[in-house]
Amino acid sequence: MPLPDQPERALLPAGFMDVLPPHATCEAETVERLMQVFAAYGYDRVKPPLIEFEETMLAGSGAALTKATFRLMDPVSQRMLALRSDMTTQIARIAETRLGHRPRPLRLSYAGQVLRVRGTELRPERQFGQVGAELVGAPSRTADVEVIVMAAEALAAVGIGGLCVDLGAPSLVPAILAQRGLDAATAARLNDALDRKDAAAVTALAPAVGTATADLLVRLLAAAGPAQPALEKLTAAELPAAAASVRSDLIAVADGLAATGAELTLSVDPVEGRGFEYHSGVTFSLFASGAPGELGRGGRYLTGTGEEATGVSLFMDAVLKALPPPARLRRVLLPAGTLAADGRRLRSEGWVTVSALDRAAEPGAEARRLGCSHALIDGTVVVVAAEPHSLTP
Amino acid sequence: MPLPDQPERALLPAGFMDVLPPHATCEAETVERLMQVFAAYGYDRVKPPLIEFEETMLAGSGAALTKATFRLMDPVSQRMLALRSDMTTQIARIAETRLGHRPRPLRLSYAGQVLRVRGTELRPERQFGQVGAELVGAPSRTADVEVIVMAAEALAAVGIGGLCVDLGAPSLVPAILAQRGLDAATAARLNDALDRKDAAAVTALAPAVGTATADLLVRLLAAAGPAQPALEKLTAAELPAAAASVRSDLIAVADGLAATGAELTLSVDPVEGRGFEYHSGVTFSLFASGAPGELGRGGRYLTGTGEEATGVSLFMDAVLKALPPPARLRRVLLPAGTLAADGRRLRSEGWVTVSALDRAAEPGAEARRLGCSHALIDGTVVVVAAEPHSLTP
């Protein structure tokens, strides 16, 4: 029914949406299925609150999210609160404090909604679901492999196969540049050129950066793509000790993934660092072949108390877009007056039962009107519609 | 590990909490189990956003929640936003607008977090889960019965039996008083006396209210308690026509519940109206024998567009407190180097697998340290702990 006197009542703010049938069920079932796989790998679920004190939520690596985070005044504490825009900093806080006494490695998983002040071109939503897992107190490169394989298994469990994993090492370039002592302007121009994968611009900076370094960076730019040739090119490069250590981590993780027999398409981008500013080791982005967006990402970092950790976050908006369409449920109309026990029996057999509330209507017509493919007539479930009515609005 | 330089970092605002293992898993599984029962009754899940425009969220029956609702400025639209403090008004909005074209009766279900500016003495939490269902466009009293029976079946499915349903009719007293034309001060004193179940105070108001009306209200106060005697007393009372119609609804719903054979303990409180200010027909509160708080509530109301509807909301904080303790999972340690296929096989058999990331530790000791009851040793799952270590912090 229209609302003539409240024409704007149904409008939501940009970036917020109502998820309607059957998508809301699909989303919830997908989240729980992903979480079940994490649970089967020994990751214990935690649920931090949607709101924390601003100074807690935006401490440490959370500071990068300051501009993205809604803030509001708490009339109870008279302090500023923040609505979470990311859950990973909350999980790190729980690992450090509430679960600081638990043995390491500590495996935690989480699922929840996050809110952003502004959407981006790639992700216009201002509310979306985040599902993830963190492995804390785990310096071994086996930990990185575990998290990636588990994420792939979880995505496969919800029907997303053909996963592509793009490995990165955002600390590689900083390790190469550490001893060059570049001025801030040069460093900014260089990072910009590397982000744009612009080899000519990197070469043009050779006078400021040093010819050998510029050449090395151009070689690293060329070492992006399918894992095997990329890692061969990377192996052939001469690197300073700190950078060589980062490279050996990257190779170890790629080798570890291959050894598990997981069906993953591996690629490597040794220069990419955007969005991984607080990562300290191997990182990864997850893509499905045929789906446009990044499904998730993760990698190695140091917690606020200096523990080695790695983790993965899946972005539910992207995951849901990559899913196969949901299966239809079998809906049966129960005429008014159907015995309660008959309804219970049908539900226990997997039927969705829709009760007619009045005796007036003819069961077959009423079933079709209410999107049921079947009706219970004279105690028997009969087909009343060749194809159930669409339940999408 | 303590955070000596950030002593307050772990503190959350009053009313907000971290839900830790195993409680977070228990909560999520309980929500999904409840929602599965609603789905089996044909209730289609919707997921409204956490944030809406203030004027939308607090329109109509939402106005009662104005003081309870966090508000914040949207830098994108330059309009005030509200963080939902209740989901039922959102569901009504969706039913009226986005799903206004869907055939009636429309069955919708929902689950999500709600936020409140202040906790109450009974419910100090400022964030809690709400799970519910709405049956829109359903004037029949069969609809009230369906919602109550379904809520009971959902609670039984998560292990909460022995449900007590307290039926109410908050429009009964207003229907009696409608023709008395009481002044505001008298009406307020009378409602206060009725809320306190204070028969003497009601009698004392007889000069202002009228002796016959005061006597009738005292009789209604006495007609609270177990359903059968209460409804007998109510039936014996002489009521004006509008009030008699409310009473007949109450009796029809009680009779309908009895006819379904659902194992419910029914009580009636014909005078209680607190918290049901926007309800127009039969209401109910759900309690579990032995659990302190109200598990949920619901009842009949009119949507903003005047559709007859009824619904139920379950309060997850109270539901979780009434649950039996969660079952322990079987956790098995996989020594470092375990074949990926062996891990997959064990997980598919229902095991939680916890991988050792280094070869150093002796599997039995490592398993016990990580809360595993079993370890995979030489290809065989062996018991390593008579009783798994507690996983609660």
Automatic annotation (TrEMBL), chains A, B:
Query: What is its pathway?
Result: Amino-acid biosynthesis; L-histidine biosynthesis; L-histidine from 5-phospho-alpha-D-ribose 1-diphosphate: step 1/9
Query: Where does the UniProt annotation locate this protein?
Result: Cytoplasm
Gene Ontology cellular-component terms for this entry are: cytoplasm
Which family would the database say this protein is a member of?
Belongs to the class-II aminoacyl-tRNA synthetase family. HisZ subfamily.
What main location does UniProt list?
cytoplasm
Determine the domain of life of the protein's source.
Bacteria
Q: Which HAMAP family match?
A: HisZ
- What would you give as a GO molecular function for this chain, any one? glycosyltransferase activity
Q: Which Pfam families match?
A: tRNA-synt_His
One biological process term from GO is: L-histidine biosynthetic process
Say if the entry is tagged with keyword Transferase. yes
State the name under which the record lists this protein. Answer: ATP phosphoribosyltransferase regulatory subunit
Q: How is the subunit organization of this protein annotated in UniProt?
A: Heteromultimer composed of HisG and HisZ subunits. Homodimer.
**Function recorded in the entry:** Required for the first step of histidine biosynthesis. May allow the feedback regulation of ATP phosphoribosyltransferase activity by histidine.
